[in-house]
Amino acid sequence: MSFNSFSQTVTDSTKIVLTKPVAKLVIQDIVTGDQLKLKLRTLEEILNQTNGKLRTQTLLVTNLESQVLNYKGIVTDLNSKSSIQNDLTKDLEAALKKANRRTKLYKIGTTVGAVALGLLIIK
Question: Which pTM value belongs to this model?
Fold first, then answer.
């Protein structure tokens, strides 16, 4: 028994034969894949820009919060200075009233003394 057979000596492995419907589907998949790659790159760029904006906004918020704390500290200092100033003003007003009373007392005492001296001199 003997079989007649033959062997191909040259095979081209770079060539793939597809049927027309399968080739259309492959082309659609390749185009869709390219579109998805482009869409992914665009989305990554948008995400990077958004992350940059978020970092900037975070820095701005942190800066504004520190400014608010500084302003609150300034307001607290000014309020304490104002209360100290009010206390000093009240103390000075009390001292002025006391000095005015003494002056009136000295004037009255001087007038009474002058009148008494005048009466003594007249008698």
Answer: 0.51
